[in-house]
Amino acid sequence: MDHLLRPIYQERIEKAKTLGIIQYDIKENESNITDTFDSILLIVVKKAKAPIVTKHYILGEQKVATHIVTEKMLRKWLQNGSNRKVISWVLFGEILFEREDYLQNLRLQMQTFPYNGRNVKTGIQFAKLIRRYLEGKEQYAKGNYLDAYIHVLSSVHHLGRLSVIDSGGYPEVSIWSQVKEIEPAIYKLYEELVLSEESLPKRLELLFLASEFFIHSRTEDGAAHIIEVMKAQEYWKIQELHEHPELEFYSKDLEVFVEYLIQNEYIIVEPFISKSGEVMHRYYKVNPLK
Questions:
Q1: pLDDT by residue (tens digit) across 103-119?
Q2: Which helix (H) or strand (E) holds 71?
Q3: What b/e readout covers 14-33, taking b as 16+ CB neighbours within 10 angstroms?
Q4: Ramachandran area for residue 265 (φ above 0: left; ψ -120 to 50: alpha; else beta)
Q5: Residue 236 has what DSSP assignment?
């Protein structure tokens, strides 16, 4: 296959902005990782007009997809876990070309997972967990059990990803095989939700109770990144938090997460008088007693 693929990526090798090229071939029972294509070419470039450019090819009876992505976009995917199939491509694909060991160094960073990177990913996943958990409880209270189930299933998934990150690993597409080895208790939680013969309301009730324990035990670690960022200044407007480059990956989950941390006394609300004097601005600061 390589001699057939080479004309597709050869011109990219000759360009100085190309950092690396990976080939990932389809494996049995894993067509979702390649979007059903027989081969994927992931081409990482320093900069480009568009962050992602995708092209599809036919090679005989084979179908091939190329994804040309900027280094910034790739780092974003790896940081927030929003494109998990790419993690498999980078970790397990064949390196066809790299400039100055770029891809090997990237793999090493992913596998060693330095503390700071782990801190950020823990915070992002914990914020997602909180949102889904609260949405699940809200739907449950309304009697919308199927909607609650979807949210709770997603929250347990984020809990599973957290357990992998905590162990120093990198969450992959087949995450539950990882969780089963790393933290059997969370895997059991997942099994109870999906396979239990209890009624759906009863399953959800039990999952909420168990999830509360896991969430409470991980709150300090989950809050560590945002608290560290907020220590840089005494008071914060919510917009300042949204615009901080280290918090941008929290996206829509940021405000729910901040409110959760207020309830758990990691963050304090400070009211400031507005120009009108009638409405108070809501500012935020780290609780010095935590």
A1: 999 988 877 665 557 88
A2: helix 71-80
A3: eeeebbbbbbbebeeeeeeb
A4: left
A5: B
Q: How many residues does the chain have?
A: 290
Note the pLDDT tens digit of each residue in 29-64. 777 889 999 999 999 999 999 999 999 999 888 999
- 171 pLDDT higher than 80: no
Task: State which amino acid sits at residue 119.
Answer: N
Among 57, 50, 44, 32, which Cα is nearest to 105's?
A: 44
Query: What gap in Å lies between CA 247 and CA 223, rounded to an integer?
Result: 12
- Options 3.20.190.10, 1.20.120.330, 2.40.50.140, 2.40.170.20; CATH for 115-286 is 1.20.120.330
For the chain, the average pLDDT equals 90
The identity of residue 34, as a single letter, is T
In the predicted model, what is the mean pLDDT of residues 169-194?
A: 87
* CATH topology classification for 2-112: Beta Polymerase; domain 2 (3.30.460)
Tokens 């990976």 found at: 22
The pLDDT value recorded for residue 271 is: 92
Specify whether the CB–CB gap between 223 and 123 falls below 8 A: yes
Domain ranges of the chain: 2-112, 115-286
CA-CA-CA-CA torsion for 174, 148, 214, 134, nearest 10 degrees?
120
Is the pTM of the predicted complex or chain greater than 0.85?
no
Beta bridge partners of 41: 23, 66
Same fold, 2-112 and 115-286: no
d(CA 84, CA 72): 16
One-letter amino acid identity for 62? Q
Q: How far apart, in whole angstroms, are the C-alpha atoms of residue 74 and residue 52?
A: 9
Is residue 285 within 8 Å of residue 156, measured between CB atoms?
Answer: no
Distance of CA 119 to CAs 222, 228, 284, Å? 8, 10, 21
